[in-house]
Structure formats: C-alpha cells, structure tokens
Amino acid sequence: GKTTTIKSILDITHRDKGSVKFFGKSSERNLREIKDRLGVVFDDSYFYDELTMAEMKSIIAPAYSRWSDSRYKSYMEKFNLNPNQKIATLSKGMKTKFALVLALSHEAELLIMDEPTSGLDPLMRSQLLEVLKEYMKEGGKGVFFSTHIVSDLEKIADMLILIDNGEILLKEEKDILLDKFRKIKGDINWLNDSYKKLFLTLKVTDYGFTGITAHAREFENGIKDIVVERPTLEEIMLAYIERRRGNVDSFN
C-alpha cells in the first residue's frame, strides 16, 4: 500500500474518496503551485533512456520557477555523476541519485520519495540518507518517504506511519514510540491471563516468554525476576503487524 498511497497523494492514481492538501492548500485547486514546491523521487525511473543526464535536466529545469543551476552542479559533483552519461547506462543507484539531484535543484520544500534506498548498496544508501539529513537542516524543509528498510527510519525519521494491507496500524513520533514500549522476558510460571492481556505481542516457549508491551511498570511491580529491555524499532513495528494478523502464540 506504500506506493499506492504516494501515487494517490500525487494524483497519479485515482482516489475513490478524500482530499489532499500541501502547505495548507488543496492539491486539486493549486496543482501548478504545489508541484513547483515539491520534489518527487520514485523507486522506478521515469527518465528517457536515450538521453544524457544533461539533456534530461534541460527538459525538466524550465518547469520550475526556482531552478538553481548552481545547486544542480553542486549535487551532481557531490554524487559523482557525469552529466554527459546516458541514462540507459546508469545503475539503479545512480538513477536514484540523479532523481534526487533534480528534486533538490529547484529548492523543493517537500520531498516525496518512494523506496529511495531500495536496492542500493550500504555505502550509497548511507550517502543518500546523509544528503537528506543536510536538506532537512536547512529549515522549512520536509521529507515524506516510504521504505521497508527499518534501519533507514531509525537514522532519519521523526514521524512514523505503518501501513499493512492498506490499513494504517500506527502513526506516532519515533522517539515517543521507542520510549513507550519495552520488551519483557521472564519465567512462564509467572504469566497469568491478566498479564497476557497487557502485551502487544507475546511469544511463549518451554523456557519462558518474550513480549512487547506498553505496560512495563505493571510487570516490574508484580513479577519477580523479569528482564526489561528497550526493543528495536523493527521489533515494535513487527509486533503491530503480528498482532493484526494474529501470528502470535498467545493470541491464536
């Protein structure tokens, strides 16, 4: 549902209902102005393979009122991209970099990115995330991006939205979410039905139990010899999905 959501936001895919606002303005009534203030990076490249990056840039640049050739040249050098290279010869990572260069070169106030780091090697992914961090530090800038790589969220995200099969399971600030939940481990003999209800997810084995909960204080006050740890962001998000799908031992 991630890509469909982004395409619906951008009016690329038809919406059955609802409306979208950017910068407090309706996307239907102010589409031209809004597009001038947006930068978009998709997982799939929509460039013309037979053109060079310089030729592609010459087509795109006139569409934006705040296009900056100096920023374009700076980012092309930063990403080590040769403007005379044909798009057909670019790797997936290079195409993503070029798409980001174009988005950043017209002073976009909001970047919308669909799986921007998917398929990139760790070094290239790290470089891209650093550029996004620098972009947001400029002030008055934001990034809305979809990803299935949770480590990217841990490095850069402020607000998280978790979608599973088209349904929003979670919408929360990352730091609040990490402070809210704890991972509890303990002896199964201490676990009764009232405690089981306090878990978001719970796994039980012959050796004990492990669960994710937002009620760690109740366990600390009522059960002896438990281990309380901070879960990773991935563990919390998986817990939400497992709870929804019923793939949890104690809830089957």
UniProtKB/TrEMBL annotation:
Record-level Gene Ontology MF annotations: ATP binding; ATP hydrolysis activity
Pfam families reported in the protein's UniProt record: ABC_tran
ABC transporter domain: residues covered: 1-118
Assigned keywords, A-Z: ATP-binding, Nucleotide-binding, Transport
InterPro entries xrefs: ABC_transporter-like_ATP-bd (IPR003439), ABC_transporter-like_CS (IPR017871), ABC_Transporter_VariousFunc (IPR051782), P-loop_NTPase (IPR027417)
PANTHER family from the UniProt entry: ABC TRANSPORTER ATP-BINDING COMPONENT, ABC TRANSPORTER ATP-BINDING PROTEIN ALBC-RELATED
Protein name in the entry: ABC transporter ATP-binding protein
Organism (species): Candidatus Anaerostipes avistercoris
Taxonomic path: Bacteria, Bacillati, Bacillota, Clostridia, Lachnospirales
